[in-house]
Amino acid sequence: MTTEELKTLKSDKVVDARSMACPGPLLAAKKAIGDVDEGQIMEILSSDEGTKSDIPKWCRKQEFEYLGSIDEDGIYRLFLKK
């Protein structure tokens, strides 16, 4: 998805992991995904740059659809579809 499409995407679940260092955001996402139904969108907020590679790898392993990310002033917004 394009950055503009991601900016207008409505997330069903938002995980705020901005204060966490690696691997905290990934662990928070793993915990939260249980609250997301099939076909819903989850957004992960992180200030840890490693999250940009961890989440897409995890999505591939779990067969979730990684939709992309937006970088906003050092905060990464990553989107996936379960």
Automatic annotation (TrEMBL):
Signal peptide: none
Phosphoprotein recorded as keyword: no
Classification via SUPFAM superfamilies: SirA-like
Keywords: Transferase
Positions of transmembrane segments: none
Boundaries of every UPF0033 domain copy: 13-82
A GO molecular-function annotation: transferase activity
Keyword Cytoplasm set for record: no
Domain of life per record: Bacteria
InterPro entries: TusA-like (IPR001455), TusA-like_sf (IPR036868)
Annotated PANTHER family: SULFUR CARRIER PROTEIN YEDF-RELATED
Family as reported in the entry's similarity comment: Belongs to the sulfur carrier protein TusA family.
Protein name, as recorded: TusA-related sulfurtransferase
Organism: Paludibacter jiangxiensis
